[in-house]
């Protein structure tokens, strides 16, 4: 063992003086309160680190709570979007059915209007044909009468029928 070596305690040994200086340095540092200062600084640093860890844990807990809240809001927003989409689809379907009904009504009205116009055109054509036939009959009767008058013979029944032709054809 080197500690019990008598040469170690010789005053000419530099290692002895280094050990004595080191011991005196530690005693002076202890007397000046350096160990308390270093201990207080280390305690303060440990307290700051613990405070930072506590703050980080609190922030993490808040972030987790906020994340859960946002996830819940996202689910709620998705459900609301689905409901809005369903309502829009229902409204579009209702509008389509309503438009089809209006189109069918419009087609039926136009058909009825076309049928009325066709019936009116038929009635007008019939009236025009009757008027033309009456004019033709009147003209033919006029020619027959003119030919009879020119020949000089008169038939009272024919004269009476010719007189009634104009009123019966109209």
Structural commentary:
- The chain has 170 residues and is mainly α.
- The protein is built from three helices and no strands.
- The chain has helices spanning 14-32, 34-151, 156-169.
- α2 runs antiparallel to α3.
- 0% of the residues are buried.
Give the overall average pLDDT: 87
Broad structural category: mainly alpha
State the helical fraction. Answer: over 70%
Separation of the first and last Cα atoms: 159 Å
Q: What is the radius of gyration? A: 64 Å
Q: What can be said about the biggest beta sheet? A: none
**Which consecutive residue ranges, at least 5 long each, have pLDDT under 50?**
none
**Helix segment count?**
3
Number of strands: 0
Binned strand content: under 5%
| Net shape | rod-shaped
**What order do the helices and strands follow?**
HHH
Q: Could you give the topology of this structure?
A:
Elements (H helix, E strand, L loop, with lengths): L13 H19 L1 H118 L4 H14 L1
